[in-house]
């Protein structure tokens, strides 16, 4: 596995013991929980390279259902995954969502947890090619702004790069357990992570 040099040089703020637990979860494809310094914006995430049908189903179950695969701009260019406004639009103050994709090999409708896990793993494959995917599909993709301070996507990509993985992650915004009509807040995230025995990392 090859890390991104740019992402590897970036700093991150995760306690070393927490990071050790995070890396163990990366290896097994289990989710981690990411909490920002604001009171909301709790995510769960899995490395795209190791996501399984089970962990993808967990992401769908506990999140809003809008699960995304995030990566740096150069990977979007490599795989020809253009932004909604065109591949050459570049990064602006608001990084646009890129087009949805499905892996062509091994999937059926593309929407199931099984199929979305295959698509995410294919996106993270070192030998992935543009022709490996159909566009549009069912996996939401997102280019990550390298200057996006406090972004759960960027924090996850940094940790993946520092752990030797390609910086491609699957993320979902968590819905509150106590009030399913709202998104999860930081004060609920600790209990949620403990209940599932998932590492929790603070983003700064």
Automatic annotation (TrEMBL):
Keywords: Hydrolase, Metal-binding, Riboflavin biosynthesis. GO terms for biological process: riboflavin biosynthetic process. InterPro entries: DHBP_synth_RibB-like_a/b_dom, DHBP_synthase_RibB. GO terms for molecular function: 3,4-dihydroxy-2-butanone-4-phosphate synthase activity; hydrolase activity; metal ion binding. One of its GO terms (cellular component) is cytosol. Pathway: Cofactor biosynthesis; riboflavin biosynthesis; 2-hydroxy-3-oxobutyl phosphate from D-ribulose 5-phosphate: step 1/1. Its EC number is 4.1.99.12. Pfam families: DHBP_synthase. Catalyzes the conversion of D-ribulose 5-phosphate to formate and 3,4-dihydroxy-2-butanone 4-phosphate. This is 3,4-dihydroxy-2-butanone-4-phosphate synthase. The lineage of its organism: Bacteria, Bacillati, Actinomycetota, Actinomycetes, Mycobacteriales.
